[in-house]
Design goal:
3-stranded mixed β-sheet; globular
Length: about 300
């Protein structure tokens, strides 16, 4: 996706204006699929006729450049912004080659929820095509690259979270430098209840680093929701505000950071990332895709084509 270096005259961001036509989406990796995280726990996010798969040419990410700030929005509210292979490819196209003139990247989700996790329909389709989990591996690799692009970006990345951030949505938010949430925000990792490992996008080492081993263990093993107030106490969120104040809170971070000199900001981000990485000894997130694919393929062979059910 090509992003213009000039500001686009949109109305205020809170109004979620329509974006101009974008070039065709990058080709979807053959058989790529993002594993399900939350559809089984919360029920399918598809409603009625909308349950049909989105055409490959449709975009699920909207991008707006305003000066030194790049706004990236997950734009599939009818599915709870479920993460698909196509969405990951779009995100990577935007984030993988950063513009040095961009000081801040704001990641948000359209609709009532930030992101309800992976697309379970795509997950089932992928295992039907390749029961060995090849599509899961492909998508898992994309997921790791997207989350690394958020963390390693020379720009400061900000997650703007409303509603639920579940599974893959939790991972995308946690990959950002700064995270502000509405007082109605809730984070959840239901993977274990679905028979899945917490192996998506490098989530586990980031969670251990930000929250601590004891609390991370409890969140993962119980799969319970973590509300906004507790998320703030655990440093999953660095700020909590009423939902109507989310854009104002984002702007209060964006304005000073966008004025920082590029070289100083880039070096400071590198220093912060280096020190954080030093605390993540034994980071095996590079194996996330393999771990997820192995577990899902084994479950597929033992249970047949049915997807894992929640407990």
């Amino acid at each position: 996706m090509n992003v213009s270096s000039e500001a686009i005259p949109y109305p205020p961001y809170a109004q979620h204006p329509p974006y101009p036509p974008q070039p065709p989406a990058p080709p979807e990796p053959a058989g790529a699929v993002e594993p399900a995280h939350d559809r089984a726990a919360y029920g399918s996010a598809h409603q009625g006729p909308a349950a049909a798969h989105t055409p490959a040419a449709s975009r699920s990410v909207r991008v707006e450049r305003r000066g030194a700030v790049l706004y990236v929005e997950l734009d599939s509210p009818g599915t709870g912004n479920a993460v698909t292979a196509a969405m990951l490819a779009e995100l990577l196209a935007v984030l993988a080659v950063p513009d040095p003139a961009v000081r801040v990247v704001v990641l948000s989700g359209a609709g009532p929820d930030f992101c309800l996790g992976g697309d379970r329909d795509e997950f089932a389709d992928s295992l039907g095509v390749d029961p060995t989990g090849g599509g899961i591996r492909s998508s898992g690799t994309l997921a790791r690259r997207v989350c690394e692009a958020l963390t390693d970006s020379p720009a400061v990345t900000i997650a703007r979270v409303q509603g639920r951030a579940t599974g893959a949505g939790f991972a995308l938010a946690l990959a950002c430098d700064l995270r502000v949430g509405a007082d109605t925000a809730a984070f959840r990792l239901p993977e274990l209840a679905l028979g899945l490992p917490v192996a998506w996008g490098g989530l586990l080492p980031r969670l251990l680093n930000e929250v601590g081993a004891a609390r991370a263990r409890e969140i993962i093993l119980t799969g319970r929701p973590v509300g906004a107030a507790e998320a703030f106490d655990l440093s999953i969120l660095q700020r909590v505000v009423p939902e109507q104040d989310l854009d104002r809170a984002v702007d209060e971070w964006v304005k000073p950071v966008a004025r920082r000199p590029e070289a100083g900001l880039r070096v400071t981000k590198s220093l912060l990332n280096s020190h954080a990485a030093a605390t993540r000894l034994g980071d095996t997130s590079v194996l996330d895709a393999e771990l997820m694919a192995s577990v899902l393929a084994a479950a597929h062979y033992s249970r047949g084509p049915a997807a894992p059910s929640s407990s």
